[in-house]
Amino acid sequence: MATDYYAVLGVRRDASQEEIKKAFRRLARELHPDVNPDPKTQERFKEINAAYEVLSDPQKKQVYDLGGDPLSQAGAGAGAGGFGAGGFGNFSDIMDAFFGTASQRGPRSRTRRGQDAMIRIEVELDEAAFGTTKDIQVDTAIVCSTCSGEGAAPGTSAQTCDMCRGRGEVSQVTRSFLGQVMTSRPCPQCQGFGTVVPNPCPECAGDGRVRSRRTLTVKIPAGVDNGTRIQLAGEGEVGPGGGPAGDLYVEIHELPHPTFQRRGDDLHCTVTIPMTAAALGTKVPLETLDGLEEVDIRPGTQSGQSIPLHGRGVTHLRGGGRGDLVVHVEVQTPTKLDVEQERLLRELAKLRGEERPQGQFQPGQQGLFSRLKDAFNGR
């Protein structure tokens, strides 16, 4: 070959693609016709443009290193055409050399990752506490079985776009204060894909996917709570063109329980007992998540006291063990007494010296006005 493209760019023959690109950018800033209009400089700019077109393309570079002519085989004339058809492929790198940005080159892929999906399921308290498995119905996009995600009707295939010739973009030259400026935009005929599907699949209309309802079995771990999300990798929407599926997220909604209220991993409930039971003590049966148990009400239990049952709550989602079950006691005072009951209570009060109780008074909370009044009085 008459031209040594490595020498034109000033790089070694074993230079990396990054080194080749940096050398081209540096020379493009110095030799661009809008910066240096000298005719000799313009010829030099054409040379580095042709050299970069070959050395930046792995296939052309391989042909060149083996002694072939990559430009003639590719049907391009960048070395002679400058800003002609052969120079279009390097325009983004030229713009990058001046403005530090580069557009995405090459056609877009028809195959893209699908979106994630989310479904909400309801579970009972015992299912959340101990874990379970549930079958769920999911409506998502799956790969079209007719075209296997290709989007083309059976027996046909996608064809190279004749407008952009497979590049996915078209370029045009406009005049500006810098001179001739080339801009690229997605090809309007193929939408930037580089290929067109003349005969779309009748089942998926060329999208490569169809919607379908499927049944999945989800394992609910012990200890989940409201808002907990379980990730099922690859069970979401299949992407366009039969691309990889996104993930499916299962969000937990715990249904209210008739007896227990959940606070974290602890369970709370309230038991109402008569005054006599609180004074004398008793045992109250309670249906817990583990079965029937008796709650021991000790003599003299006061209203508002709580009785913990350790390890009877919800399983910890992370780590072993369980929360507690806390029983809150409410003592009920009788509102209606018959004659005999009243007589007995009065006799009990007399025996306990409580016929005319003095009571025990404690300071209550003051209102804002009272606090301001005390402040002004110096109290």
From TrEMBL:
CXXCXGXG motif repeats: from-to residues: 144-151, 161-168, 187-194, 201-208
InterPro entries in the record: DnaJ, DnaJ_C, DnaJ_domain, DnaJ_domain_CS, HSP40/DnaJ_pept-bd, HSP_DnaJ_Cys-rich_dom, HSP_DnaJ_Cys-rich_dom_sf, J_dom_sf
Cofactor requirements of the protein: Zn(2+)
Family: Belongs to the DnaJ family.
HAMAP family: DnaJ
Signal sequence coordinates: none
Binding site for Zn(2+) 1: 144, 147, 201, 204
A GO MF label: unfolded protein binding
Keywords carried by this UniProt record: Chaperone, Cytoplasm, DNA replication, Metal-binding, Repeat, Stress response, Zinc, Zinc-finger
Binding site for Zn(2+) 2: 161, 164, 187, 190
Gene designation: dnaJ2
Function: Participates actively in the response to hyperosmotic and heat shock by preventing the aggregation of stress-denatured proteins and by disaggregating proteins, also in an autonomous, DnaK-independent fashion. Unfolded proteins bind initially to DnaJ; upon interaction with the DnaJ-bound protein, DnaK hydrolyzes its bound ATP, resulting in the formation of a stable complex. GrpE releases ADP from DnaK; ATP binding to DnaK triggers the release of the substrate protein, thus completing the reaction cycle.
Subunit structure, as described in the record: Homodimer.
Subcellular localization(s) per the UniProt record: Cytoplasm
Keyword Cell cycle: no
Positions of region (Disordered): 352-379
Domain named J: residues: 4-68
Name of the protein in question: Chaperone protein DnaJ
GO biological process: DNA replication; protein refolding; response to heat
